[in-house]
Write a structure and sequence with these properties.
The structure is a homotetramer of 146-residue chains.
Chain A (H helix, E strand, L loop, with lengths): L8 E5 L16 H17 L5 H8 L1 E2 L2 E8 L9 E10 L3 E10 L2 E11 L1 E2 L4 E2 L4 H15 L1
Antiparallel strand pairs in A: 1-4, 2-7, 3-6, 4-5, 5-6, 7-8
Protein name (chains A, B, C, D): Thioesterase superfamily protein
InterPro entries (chains A, B, C, D): HotDog_dom_sf (IPR029069)
Chain lengths: 146, 146, 146, 146
Amino acid sequence: MGSPPDSAFAHDIRVTWGDCDPAKIAYTGRLPWFALDAINAWWERHLGGDGWFQMELDRNMGTPFVRIEMDFKRPVTPRHVLRCYVWPIRLGETSITFQVDAYQDGKLGFTGKFTNVFTVADQFRKQRPPEDIRALIEPLIAQAGA
Amino acid sequence: MGSPPDSAFAHDIRVTWGDCDPAKIAYTGRLPWFALDAINAWWERHLGGDGWFQMELDRNMGTPFVRIEMDFKRPVTPRHVLRCYVWPIRLGETSITFQVDAYQDGKLGFTGKFTNVFTVADQFRKQRPPEDIRALIEPLIAQAGA
Amino acid sequence: MGSPPDSAFAHDIRVTWGDCDPAKIAYTGRLPWFALDAINAWWERHLGGDGWFQMELDRNMGTPFVRIEMDFKRPVTPRHVLRCYVWPIRLGETSITFQVDAYQDGKLGFTGKFTNVFTVADQFRKQRPPEDIRALIEPLIAQAGA
Amino acid sequence: MGSPPDSAFAHDIRVTWGDCDPAKIAYTGRLPWFALDAINAWWERHLGGDGWFQMELDRNMGTPFVRIEMDFKRPVTPRHVLRCYVWPIRLGETSITFQVDAYQDGKLGFTGKFTNVFTVADQFRKQRPPEDIRALIEPLIAQAGA
């Protein structure tokens, strides 16, 4: 499976009682939510604090999801912080794919791939990403693949 | 993509304001939750009212998820009921895979595949499914594939 | 505490595994969500299918919450449907207060009061409720108090 | 309303796109969840890292909620961190009441009071809090009231 690349962004999530189900582990329905939080935090880190909220409202750029896939390797619990590594692995003409690997206590909890398309937010119409976004992402993909 | 088989179970979800994000569509993080609700309802239907809660507590059988994948085809909104069709598509030695296709107003909103393993709940240890479960599921898979 | 008035609207919620925490009961954080779902359903019932989503987008009327209070009487579990009775108990100049009493198996799980203000949605500015809304609600309050 | 006491614990929450509804503000149903996260974090801070999860599983002490009340003063948005101040305001024979005041950009978003009872977790039976818990909380209440 390999490790996250050095350029991956790390986002820490506090897993709590309220995230857990009666099996005493985080409910599966919460795990995609955690991964999405991590991807949103990746944007905040790389766009000067702007996450999906600011991207949509201030930049008129949407990134709706078209596909997610996740493999769950170990139960996630409140015993440790959930460290989510996020990095882009593919930039298409109008889409981007992120990988999110989430660790607790050094062990992989889940790994997933998430694909978004870029849209003109107020028209919900596909678009190519702005040049500054492309310029930001391409080197990160190159670094990750190296 | 095809239609759900006739033997698919239909579970209706009321999508509401609180499920939606500022793009005025259901937040992506809610969609796996909806699919899981539908799978839980599938069990309730086929096990005399017992869903995951009763399966774990009364039958000591867990079915943790090991993989999910979902393709999002159209935004989900509160304008229509979200009708989720659920059916098993594969029964392995110790695992089961469900397909969930969710429609609004007759159009496919998302489609996904979800794999669980059967466990002894109080030991969190993989097991083969009980014979009555196997006897229940195998004909459904045969019907779906026909 | 008394019973809900005959004119109260009943909204049923399926409580599931994913709503529960490791104490094997619905997580407290889910219970206000359930009550809100019931209030939204009350509007749908009384406005020809329009809930908060349609009220905001189609009628330009918002009803943000200014206060909630809830008393939890018994744990809520997936063993029974959660029947939520909803009815208005007060209509102010620009506000409305609902009571929500939630029962499982005939026993009160929680009771709460929820106050919203009426707003012009796209201006987030307080307003008096439209006359048709007032005409709808006043008799219901009279019936409830009778 | 006053300010939080100096001894109040501050817990920061990142409000995101997924927490918001189509009115572009955090959905009301999320706000009690935030307050609960802050109370859980208060316990973690004061019990050497143990939150509700560890309290229940490792200490066999539950603290189920019997009452919540919240007043919403200003919309909560992703534009600023949500800083939640938490402090105990009353310790009864078998109960504790916390106040949570949540600020964004220096302005009060909501204020709430939350009452829990202490229980023997595995028996779901009321109990007096252990002496070390009482010894921890009493001075904090005295400081807050000073």
